[in-house]
Amino acid sequence: MLQTQAHRGLFVGLVTLDLIYLVDRPPTDNEKIVASDYTVAAGGPATNAAVAFSYLGNQAIVLGMLGAHPMIQLILADLQQCGVTLADLAPDRPDSPPVSSIMVTKQTGERAVVSLNAAKTQAIADSIPAHSLQDVAVVLIDGHQMAVGRAIAVQARSQNILIVVDGGSWKPGFETVLPFADYVICSANFQPPNCQSADDVAAYLLQLGIPHVAITQGQQPILYWTAAQAGHIDVPVVNAIDTLGAGDIFHGAFCHAILQEDFREALAIAARVAAQSCQHFGTRRWMEENDEF
């Protein structure tokens, strides 16, 4: 996977502070346990996707709500180290950013997460900084800032900028954003109204006029649909150390690859990058300990 040209991407959505612990097992009620490792990083679907996009040789901007609380310095320091720029939707907000506490089970790579999303901290479209889409080649929207996401989608469509939607889970208001998307990549947990199967989800999205749809299923094959065909892509088999953020990294790698490859190949490339990330603890060490990409 060769980088032929650096592109600029805008990643719209959630920004959190992630406290990540590696444990033998999650605690039971009233139990204290000691972690064998830990790490602290900026998090959120759009944020982790931006980090992957930047790592693969591009320029990434996160458009999200951060504010002026002292804790944001930890987020800003991590993003700066990853080469990611933050465009703040509420620079004067005094409240602390959302904090996620995450336990990763050492033997399985599975994670347990306690977090706050952006449901109580929704920005309005008027808060979007001017020139946010200047020289942008691709936009990713994770649905955590829905009004802002829709406004950006409308602008991006008018400028023929590629729009990717991260469908991690269904959120009210997604129906106002999805019709603008060129690519919708969902997890198996994405369930629009009255959808109970992957085929239901695909039919719902294709009926909206979305030309490219994919559903990731963890270690199971990626399912994909276009107006002309449907198929699946096997994902690499790896010894998973930590699955945290793998879907986000997949989306960032897809945004990179789709600017150079066709839909199916971009999905395959994203799967390889995400598989690499699962072999390292946390959401950053796969970049520190890997030079394949």
Global shape: globular
Helical fraction equals: 25-40%
Question: Count of DSSP helices?
Answer: 8
CATH topology: UDP-N-acetylmuramoyl-L-alanine:D-glutamate ligase
* Stretches with pLDDT under 50, minimum 5 residues: none
> How many domains would you count in the coordinates?
1
Helix/strand order? EEEHEHEEEEHEHEHEEEHHH
Q: What's the alpha carbon Rg, rounded to whole Å? A: 18 Å
In the CATH scheme, the class would be Alpha Beta
Main beta sheet, described? 9 strands, mixed
Helix-strand makeup class: alpha/beta
Question: Would you tell me the overall average pLDDT?
Answer: 93
Largest sheet, spatial ordering of strands:
5-4-1-8-9-10-11-12-13
Distance from first to last alpha carbon: 7 Å
Plain-language structure description:
It is built from eight helices and 13 strands. It is α/β, with parallel strands linked by helices. The chain has one domain (8-288): Ribokinase (UDP-N-acetylmuramoyl-L-alanine:D-glutamate ligase, 3-Layer(aba) Sandwich). Helix 2 links the parallel strand 4 and strand 5 (84-88). It is globular.
